[in-house]
C-alpha cells in the first residue's frame, strides 16, 4: 500500500512548520545573489493547512509568494495563507516597495482593499477603501463596483455548489469520533479489501487487456459489501452517489456530493483524453470507491478503521495496492471559506489523478516527482482559475531559473518528494508535456512497464538524459516566463 505523499506529509505542512519552528532565520545568513538583504523583508505566514512558516521573501506576484526558509524555497498561493496573515504580508511587501506607509498611493490602498475583500476581511477592506478615497475621490465608483462584483461572485459560487453554503462550524470533534471507535485494533479485519482471493492477478487497464465483465461484477460485489461495513460504522448519514466511474460514499449534503461527482468525472475525462488508452468502459476495476467526509474527525476515523493509519497531517490520500490493482480515494472538506473549498476540490482532483495513473497500463508505481507533478498538472488543467497549482509552479520555477538553483538531485531521486517540491515537479512535468504529448505518453507508458526513469526518458525523448532535461527545462521556463538570462554559475541559499 502506498499513500500519496500529499497524504503522508500533508498539504498541511505541519511538519514543515515544525521544522522551521526551531529555525531562527537571520536574513544576513543567506546570500542570494539577487536579493541583497536590504531589498526584501521577512514574513511569517499562517497557513490554512495548519502551522506557520517564516522566511525571507524572494519573489511574489498577485497569485503567490516565494519565501526561503531553512535554505529551501517554499511557494504559497495567497489563498493558502490565512486571510489576516496574507493581508499583513502583502501590505508589508507593498509598503517596503514604496519606501514607507506614507508613500502608499490611492491605487495601492485600493489594491489592498480589493485583496482584503477577496479574503473576506470586510472591515479591513473598508479601512483601505476609505483611505484610497481620501487620497483620490475619483476611486469611489470603483469601490462600489468591487463590492458588487464580490457579492455576485459569492452567489455564483454558492449556486455552483447546488445552493449549499459551506458547512459552518461543522463539529470537528476528533475525540468524540475516536470514542465511537475506541479500539482501532478491533477493526483490523476491515482493513483488507479481499480482492486477492477473487482476482488473483493484476488487472490493470491497458490497451489489449480487458477485465472480464464477470470479474468486474464480482469486484463490485466485494466493494458493495465493503461499503455496507463503512456505512454501518460511519453512520446513516453516509450514502452512495454512483457516477460513471466513481462510487462516492459521503456524508456531505446532497448537492455538494453531486458536485464532487462532477469534479471527479471531469478529472477522469481529462486524463482519459490525455492518455487516450483504448480500454472500453472503466480504467478502474469496478469504478473507483471515493470516500468523502464532512469533517477531519470523520476522515481520520475512516483512515484509522479502514486503512489502518491515523490520517493526521493529511487532507486526503489515495490507497493504491500494487499487487491486486485496487485503489480508493479518501478526503474531507475542512473549513468554511471559499479558499478552503477550492483546496478541497484541488485535493479531490489531485488524488483522483493518482488513482487513475495507478491503474493505467499496469499497477506499478511511478517515480514520485512524475506522479506528483502529473497530479498537480491535472488539478490545474481541470480546475483552472480555481486552482493555484500552475501559478505556484511558474513562480517557483522562475526562481530556480533566475538563480540557477540546480535540480539534478531532484530529478534523479525517484523516491517520495516533499510537499514544497510539488510545484517544481509540476513545472518539469508541464515541460515534458509541452515538448510533445506523444513522447510524454510514451514516457509514462514506459515507466508503467517498469523501465527506470533515465531509460524511459532516453527512449521517449530521443536520447535525452537528466542533464539535458534540466537544461531544456530551464530554457523553456525562461522563454515562457520572459526571464532575463540567468547569471553564470549557480547561486545557493547560503554559500557555505
Ligand atoms: Zn499527491
Question: How would you describe this protein?
Answer:
This protein has 496 residues and is an alpha+beta fold. It has helices spanning 5-10, 14-21, 83-98, 106-118, 122-135, 140-160, 174-180, 195-199, 213-234, 254-275, 296-307, 338-358, 368-383, 389-402, 408-412, 422-435, 437-449, 453-460, 466-480, and strands at 2-3, 42-46, 52-60, 64-69, 72-77, 239-242, 246-250, 288-293, 316-320, 327-332. It contains 19 helices and ten strands. A six-stranded mixed β-sheet has the order 1-9-10-8-7-6, sandwiched between helices. It has a four-stranded antiparallel β-sheet with strand order 2-3-4-5, with helices on both faces. Helix 10 packs across helix 13. The longest helix has 22 residues, at 213-234. Bound molecules: zinc ion. Zinc ion binds at residues 4-6, 350, 354, 372, 375.
Write the layout of secondary structure elements.
Layout (H helix, E strand, L loop, with lengths): L1 E2 L1 H6 L3 H8 L20 E5 L5 E9 L3 E6 L2 E6 L5 H16 L7 H13 L3 H14 L4 H21 L13 H7 L14 H5 L13 H22 L4 E4 L3 E5 L3 H22 L12 E6 L2 H12 L8 E5 L6 E6 L5 H21 L9 H16 L5 H14 L5 H5 L9 H14 L1 H13 L3 H8 L5 H15 L16
Parallel strand pairs: 7-8, 8-10
Antiparallel strand pairs: 1-9, 2-3, 3-4, 4-5, 6-7, 9-10
Helix pairs in contact: 3-4, 4-5, 4-6, 7-11, 10-12, 10-13, 12-13, 13-16, 14-16, 14-19, 16-17, 16-19, 17-18
Bound molecules: zinc ion.
Question: Which structural traits does this protein have?
Answer:
496 residues; alpha+beta; six-stranded mixed β-sheet; four-stranded antiparallel β-sheet; 19 helices; 51% helix; binds zinc ion
Amino acid at each position: 500500500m502506498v499513500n500519496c505523499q500529499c497524504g503522508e506529509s500533508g498539504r498541511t505542512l505541519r511538519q514543515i512548520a515544525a521544522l522551521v519552528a526551531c529555525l531562527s532565520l537571520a536574513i544576513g545568513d543567506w546570500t542570494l545573489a539577487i536579493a541583497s538583504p536590504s531589498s526584501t523583508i521577512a514574513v511569517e505566514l499562517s497557513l490554512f493547512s495548519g502551522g506557520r512558516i517564516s522566511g525571507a521573501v524572494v519573489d511574489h506576484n498577485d497569485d503567490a509568494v516565494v519565501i526561503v526558509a531553512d535554505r529551501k524555497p517554499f511557494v504559497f498561493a495567497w489563498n493558502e495563507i490565512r486571510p489576516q496573515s496574507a493581508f499583513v504580508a502583502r501590505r508589508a511587501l507593498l509598503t517596503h516597495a514604496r519606501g514607507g506607509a506614507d508613500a502608499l498611493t490611492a491605487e495601492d490602498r485600493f489594491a489592498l482593499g480589493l485583496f482584503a475583500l477577496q479574503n473576506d476581511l470586510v472591515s479591513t477592506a473598508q479601512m483601505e477603501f476609505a483611505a484610497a478615497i481620501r487620497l483620490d475621490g475619483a476611486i469611489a465608483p470603483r469601490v462600489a463596483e468591487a463590492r458588487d462584483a464580490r457579492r455576485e461572485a459569492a452567489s455564483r459560487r454558492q449556486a455552483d455548489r447546488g445552493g449549499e453554503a459551506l458547512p459552518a462550524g461543522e463539529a470537528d470533534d476528533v475525540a468524540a469520533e475516536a470514542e465511537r471507535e475506541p479500539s482501532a485494533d478491533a477493526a483490523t479485519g476491515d482493513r483488507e479489501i479481499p480482492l486477492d482471493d477473487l482476482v488473483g492477478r493484476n488487472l490493470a487497464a491497458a490497451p489489449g487487456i480487458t477485465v472480464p465483465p464477470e470479474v468486474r461484477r464480482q469486484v463490485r460485489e466485494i466493494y458493495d459489501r465493503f461499503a455496507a461495513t463503512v456505512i454501518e460504522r460511519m453512520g446513516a448519514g453516509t450514502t452512495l452517489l454512483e457516477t460513471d466511474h466513481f462510487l462516492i460514499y459521503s456524508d456531505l449534503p446532497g448537492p455538494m456530493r453531486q458536485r464532487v461527482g462532477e469534479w471527479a468525472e471531469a478529472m477522469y475525462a481529462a486524463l482519459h483524453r490525455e492518455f487516450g488508452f483504448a480500454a472500453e468502459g472503466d480504467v478502474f476495476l469496478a469504478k473507483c470507491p471515493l470516500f468523502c467526509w464532512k469533517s477531519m474527525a470523520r476522515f481520520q476515523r475512516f483512515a484509522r478503521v479502514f486503512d489502518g493509519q491515523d490520517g493526521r497531517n493529511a487532507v486526503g490520500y489515495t490507497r493504491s495496492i500494487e499487487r491486486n490493482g485496487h485503489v480508493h480515494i479518501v478526503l474531507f472538506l475542512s473549513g468554511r471559506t471559499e479558499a478552503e473549498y477550492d483546496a478541497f476540490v484541488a485535493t479531490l482532483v489531485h488524488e483522483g489523478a493518482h488513482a487513475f495513473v495507478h491503474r493505467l497500463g499496469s499497477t506499478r508505481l511511478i517515480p514520485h516527482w512524475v506522479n506528483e507533478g502529473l497530479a498537480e498538472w491535472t488539478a490545474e488543467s481541470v480546475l483552472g482559475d480555481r486552482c493555484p497549482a500552475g501559478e505556484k509552479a511558474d513562480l517557483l520555477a522562475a526562481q530556480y531559473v533566475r538563480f540557477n538553483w540546480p535540480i539534478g538531485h531532484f530529478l534523479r531521486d525517484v523516491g517520495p518528494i516533499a510537499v514544497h517540491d510539488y510545484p517544481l515537479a509540476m513545472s518539469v512535468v508541464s515541460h515534458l508535456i509541452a515538448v510533445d504529448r506523444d513522447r510524454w505518453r510514451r514516457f509514462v507508458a514506459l515507466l508503467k512497464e517498469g523501465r527506470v526513469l533515465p531509460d524511459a526518458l532516453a527512449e521517449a525523448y530521443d536520447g535525452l538524459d537528466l542533464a539535458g532535461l534540466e537544461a531544456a527545462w530551464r530554457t523553456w521556463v525562461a522563454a515562457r516566463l520572459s526571464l532575463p538570462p540567468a547569471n553564470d554559475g549557480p547561486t545557493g541559499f547560503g554559500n557555505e
